[in-house]
User: Which sequence fits this backbone?
C-alpha cells in the first residue's frame, strides 16, 4: 500500500474504483507518459479489471469513458493499453476495439 500511495501523490497516476454498494467490482489505473512518437504526453492504462460476474454490464465502458475524459482534460495526445495476443484475451481485445482503440503493431517485452 505505501508504494501505491506514493504513486498517487505525484498527480501523474490515478486509480478509479468501480463498486456496487461497498463491494469493489472493477478498477482502472492510469498514468502519464511522454514519448517522441506521440509528440508529447499521453496516458497509459497499465491495469484494468472487472470481476467476471460484473462484466458486460457497462462497468468497463464507464471506467474507460473516465480515462478518455482525463485524456481530454490533460491534453494528452492519446491513450495506450496493452493486451497480449493470447487466444483467451480475444474478448478483451474486441472490447477495446469497440471502445475506439486500434492495434498499433507494437509488442510488449520485458526482462526481470
Assistant:
Amino acid at each position: 500500500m505505501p508504494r501505491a500511495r506514493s504513486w498517487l501523490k505525484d498527480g501523474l497516476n490515478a486509480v478509479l474504483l468501480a463498486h456496487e454498494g461497498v463491494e469493489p467490482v472493477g478498477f482502472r489505473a492510469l498514468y502519464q507518459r511522454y514519448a517522441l512518437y506521440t509528440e508529447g504526453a499521453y496516458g497509459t492504462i497499465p491495469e484494468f479489471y472487472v470481476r467476471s460476474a460484473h462484466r458486460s454490464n457497462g462497468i468497463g465502458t464507464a471506467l474507460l469513458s473516465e480515462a478518455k475524459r482525463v485524456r481530454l482534460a490533460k491534453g494528452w495526445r492519446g491513450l495506450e493499453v496493452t493486451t497480449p495476443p493470447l487466444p483467451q484475451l480475444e474478448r478483451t481485445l474486441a472490447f477495446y476495439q469497440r471502445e475506439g482503440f486500434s492495434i498499433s503493431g507494437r509488442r510488449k517485452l520485458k526482462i526481470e
In short: The beta strands are 13-20, 23-35, 40-45, 48-50, 79-81. The two ends are 22 Å apart (CA to CA). The chain is about 30% helix and 30% strand. The chain has a mean pLDDT of 86.
